[in-house]
Write a structure and sequence with these properties.
GO molecular function: NADPH binding; oxidoreductase activity, acting on NAD(P)H
Helix content: 10-25%
Keywords: NADP, Oxidoreductase
CATH superfamily of the largest domain: Medium-chain alcohol dehydrogenases, catalytic domain
InterPro entries: ADH-like_N (IPR013154), ER (IPR020843), GroES-like_sf (IPR011032), NAD(P)-bd_dom_sf (IPR036291)
CATH topology of the largest domain: Quinone Oxidoreductase, Chain A, domain 1
Strand content: 25-35%
Number of strands: 17
Number of helices: 8
CATH architecture of the largest domain: Alpha-Beta Complex
EC number: 1.-.-.-
Protein name: Putative zinc-type alcohol dehydrogenase-like protein YjmD
Length: 320
């Protein structure tokens, strides 16, 4: 089978498409024929050598959409549509950057959907993260919502989910450049705010904030949260993993709520809830860019570039 093998840390050029043996099924594991997978920033971090637990060589990929190829799990059928995300996939064991992937039975999630394949491939892990954050923010009519790092895949996915259910809710998005202002407004944002050096260039306040920059700028985000509001910090695009010198009594003194969403908190029910939500509100979840597995270096380079916008997926034409 074709697979993307990383032998050492580096730039997109270390992503090598090679022929490797198709995995053999073993007890407690299921072989999945990969129809496609999304490209995520966490995989870029791993490729760059910033995931200390990952040893090379490794086939990356923390997600995939596919069909059951072979299994001993009694409730799964050959040819059944499944999704898999997280669970040390692409980290402790080889992941979804391949034509086939061997997965622990516990993280193979059968789903039912009428979505087109490209849309289904776009859902994990980007839309799953956005949806979990959306639920935890408890969005209501009349909210004033801010997405920090709005041009990211999760930020754009969140905007589509929110506007799908609440088209009249005010939604602002922040960006380090206003070059993509028109693109963001077409994606559903009502206002674009400049984020300069980790400081939002506005006095606006919000009832709900999705912070995808993470610990680096969360204190500045909290300054823009109205009393009783909720902030969900579920991204680390700022490159900082933890909060230092954080006094919760001082930082949350306006009776505000800090939450998060971890995509490792996954289940069949949660994935199906996302799919049902997308279908119910007829949300356009088509990816922004579709590449073939042989274009994996180009896909990574695009996602890392200043031109990137939205969800990037790989579609395995031979496995449809």
């Amino acid at each position: 089978m074709k697979a993307v093998l990383v032998k050492e840390a580096g730039g997109p050029e270390v992503l090598q498409v090679v022929e490797v043996p198709k995995p053999t099924v073993k007890e407690g594991w299921t072989l999945v024929k990969v129809q496609g997978f999304g490209i995520n920033h966490s995989e870029i971090f791993t490729r760059q050598g910033l995931s200390p637990s990952v040893q090379f060589p490794r086939i990356l990929g923390i997600e995939c959409v596919g069909l059951v190829e072979e299994t001993n799990r009694p409730d799964l059928q050959v040819g059944q549509q499944v999704i898999s995300i997280m669970g040390e996939m692409g980290r402790a064991f080889d992941g979804g950057y391949a034509e086939y992937v061997l997965l622990p039975d516990r993280q193979v999630y059968p789903v039912k959907t009428k979505l087109e394949l490209e849309s289904l491939i776009a859902l994990p892990e980007t839309y799953y993260t956005a949806f979990g954050s959306y639920i935890n923010l408890k969005i209501e009519e009349g909210d004033r919502v801010l997405v920090r790092a709005a041009t990211s895949g999760v930020g754009l996915a969140f905007a589509k989910l929110l506007k799908g259910q609440f088209p009249k809710v005010y939604l602002a998005g922040s960006s380090r450049s206003l070059a993509k202002e028109e693109q963001l407004k077409k994606a559903g944002f009502d206002q674009v705010i400049l984020d300069q050096g980790g400081v939002l260039q506005t006095d606006e306040e919000f009832t709900k904030i999705l912070d995808l920059v993470g610990p680096r700028d969360i204190k500045d985000s909290l300054k823009h949260l109205l009393e009783g509001g909720i902030i969900c910090s579920c991204g680390q695009l700022g490159g900082q993993w933890t909060l230092s010198d954080f006094d919760p009594i001082e930082a949350l003194c306006r009776n505000v709520y800090l939450t998060t969403f971890a995509s490792a908190n996954v289940s069949n029910e949660k994935l199906q809830e996302l799919i049902d939500f997308v279908e119910k509100y007829q949300i356009d979840v088509q990816p922004e860019k579709i590449f073939a597995i042989d274009q994996i270096q180009e896909a990574h380079a695009y996602l890392e570039s200043s031109q990137s916008f939205g969800k990037v997926i790989i579609k395995n034409e031979g496995n449809l």
